[in-house]
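Quick one:
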Amino acid sequence: MSVWKHLALLGRANSKESIEYILEALWRTRKTGLDAADRQIFGEMLQLSNDSDLDPLLVCLRILIRKCVYENAKKDEMQKLFPAEVQPELQRLLTLLLQKFQKEWREDIAKEDTANDRVILPQLRAMMWTRGNERSEIGDPAAITNLKVQISDRS
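Output:
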């Protein structure tokens, strides 16, 4: 069974708002993972009898969220993310919800990136080298390499 078939479990949700809540909770807990209370809420929303059915569904949703946010997928690109076995009406609903949150989630990522004080590496502008002893004997494989690197400031 393909992992994507687990998306059909979303059809058990009572409303679009339930699926919306699940997506928002997955985004909110993207660094920490779901706690037991969230898992229980999801299980109740989706009327799951077995908690282990939840994990493959969450994997699918996290993949979709990641592609939507980090690859900045547009509407037509989002629909291509779904394999053929995902029902068209579910594809449309998830596409609408992902589009709804995409801008907000991308802004969250941008804020996190600036808050993390990331080290900005300089951009390489040019690199040249010369080699000495190119024609050395096979028995004497010595080479001297001089490397000159020019760094440009991106600011």
